[in-house]
# Entry
Amino acid sequence: MTDSQFAIETIVAPSTPPGQSGLAVIRLSGPDAVTLTDRFFRPKRSHKRAAAMAGYTMSPGDFADIDEVVVAVFLAPHSFTGEDVVEITCHGGSAVKRAILAALLEAGAVIAEPGEFSRRAFMNGKIDLVQAEAIMDLIGSEAKRQAASAYGQLKGRLSAEFKEASASLYRAMASVELMLEFPEHEMHAEAMAELSDQVRSLGRMLEHLSQTYRRGRLIHDGARVVIYGEPNVGKSSLLNAFIGMNRAIVTDIPGTTRDTIEHHLELGGYKVIIVDTAGVRETDDVIEREGVRRSEEAVAGADIILALFTDRPTEADLAALRALQAEDKGIVLILSKDDLLDTPGRQARMETTLAMLKQALPAASVISYSAYRADDQALLAGAIAARLDETDKAGASDLLVTNVRHKQVLVDVAAELAEAASEISAGLTFDLVAVRLRHAADRLAELTGDDVSEMLADTIFSSFCVGK
Ligand SMILES: Nc1nc2c(ncn2[C@@H]2O[C@H](COP(=O)(O)OP(=O)(O)O)[C@@H](O)[C@H]2O)c(=O)[nH]1
Ligand SMILES: [Mg+2]
# Structure
């Protein structure tokens, strides 16, 4: 075995996206990060070598005098990866970026794999897996609440909760191991009951945490707001007016919209995916029928449904909406094309419809709407935001599970602990209980990566982007 097999390579990658930008950052991490930087950049003024935030021009050579850069140096272990890290901020033209990267690669740096900087941070114990995933979530955040939740996880709040659960599980395991080790030291019925309670309540705690995923998903993945109603009621016009651009084709021909159209926006700090659908009706047209099928699929996956009507909804319409409400979907009823009515007509319609809806769908909001009135867009935004707040407030904890991987582990471990608690109560042999608890502890450790398998780490890090 040679030394080189153990040598840690110095990795390099652009941390900013490809293409032109004002500035770009090229990041190095590893033992040669500083010497490589020293080789290619010279101090602008009196600096002797790379130092945090010193100004540099490129050294004479093939790419002499093509740019001025700023170099930030973070010496090990006080860096993101725990290794020496250098961030070179240059102008964001492709020629400059290419020249710098080529020089560093030629001199022995290797191009970083996707997620390799974070992977090194994980390997060097700077962050755990939950925090590594939070970094990717923060980078992908489109809305304020989404970013705040990811940042909370990056700061380690969720990891701390997971670690506390592990510690508590290890304590229970210790009691069981003791029993196995010293069978003659029989446990009193009282102590057995206490152990069973301890395991059961830990299981419940983890189950509750897994249930925050409902809200966590809403914040992390975004709320799906689906526009629903018969053809020609004004669904596509609502989408266009609401997002302020002509995204969907609008005509007076029923069945114009065939496919579902999605648009992302931020509303009240939430990420919202608004979905226009073909709507629902019986049709012989093959394409429209597929559109109707997709509309139904969109409705099934909706968090909030904007149900459009130009007439009073029928009993069948209301029954369908009630069924959707029973599935925990927020309903906003929209009386569309309001501008077509004169004031008395509108008033009469609103009054009777409202009375009817209050009875039929007490929890739904109702708004009278026109795609042609600017004020109505704010009204609609307010109605959607209120629904989102309601869903978001449904849980008491402000600690949210936003990652489906975490949720699945919590559900599995909670079930296993419930089982173990029953086994302890039933007086089953401790060998069985010990195996079950150990398995639960292994699963729980997967969360933070305390005992993570190579495969799991590979799966997680390979979805990262280059330069992070
Ligand atoms: N007066 C009026 N007409 C509207 C309004 N919204 C849509 N329309 C018209 O209704 C027709 C159908 O609109 P569209 O948005 O394509 O309906 P969709 O089939 O539900 O998507 C078009 O001719 C629109 O111009 C509105 O708020 N007021
Ligand atoms: Mg349409």
Summary: DSSP finds 16 helices and 13 strands in the chain. Residues 224 and 273 are 5 Å apart (CA to CA). The domain at 134-212+401-461 is CATH 1.20.120.430 (Four Helix Bundle (Hemerythrin (Met), subunit A)). Residues 1-5 have pLDDT under 50 and may be disordered.
